Amino acid sequence: MFNIPMNTSGALSADSLLALxxxxxxxxxxxxxxxxxxxxxxxxxxQNNYQxxAQNNxxxxxQNNYQxxARNNxxxxAQNNYQxxVQNTQPIAPRQRPxxxxxxxxxxxxxxxxxxxxxLSEIQVCLGWDILNQACDLDASAxxxxxxxxxxxxxxxVFYGQPTSPDGSITHMxxxxxxxxxxxxxxxxxxxxxxxxxxxxxxxxxxxxxxxxKNLNFSxxxxxxxxxxxxxxxxxxVKFMLTDYFASVTSMVVGEVYNKGGQWRFNPVGNGFxxxxxxxxxxxxxxxxx
Length: 290
Known about the structure:
This protein is an alpha+beta fold. The chain has 6 helices and 12 strands. It has a 6-stranded mixed beta sheet, with no helix packed on it.
């Protein structure tokens, strides 16, 4: 190994090569004090080349790469992703409901409508609800069932896409359009005397539109009710307030009107299903086209 004189910079000069040849490979001449001192000073470049790059390459990149991404990537997305779902769940103001004087029923408390009015011929089944999530759009439907609790035919159910029954006895009045936040949400008119003799029961259901696709359920609904009104006198006969609002429920059978022993009766059901309208059609025997 050669001890290169430290006054050399870049490539070796001719004088340096000559001195190297004269002294051989044993090192610098011992009687040359200047050269011996220069050899001692050979440690200086090592110190310079080591300390400066280490300080420059370590301190600056670490500070720049750590502080800025941490602040930018964390604060902005977290605020945006959290606030939007909260805004979507803001409740809509409750409607002002009709002040009826009918008999308030509990779940499963069957009552004879004919005993309240023996001449009962036309009724209105009125439904209402408040929603806690503005994404919820509720719809009421009526399934016309035979003795086997199945529809008497595929067309024998009334909903927003088919507002009138085949026998003309049931008419869906559509969504409430008063725009003032009062009254019932949906109303279904029934002419009992026009009902086909094959129809033994009418089941009334409430479903949430696109509940399965949008992950909506009845825990986002409150103050739901169904009431039966004598259409000829506009008198409320019975009313049932629903009490169960579960996150696993996407549709609700709210009540049934049926004939027993020549009397029209009402059954406040209040049972929930994890089905949409198409699923309830399958439950009641309606063949839904793909």
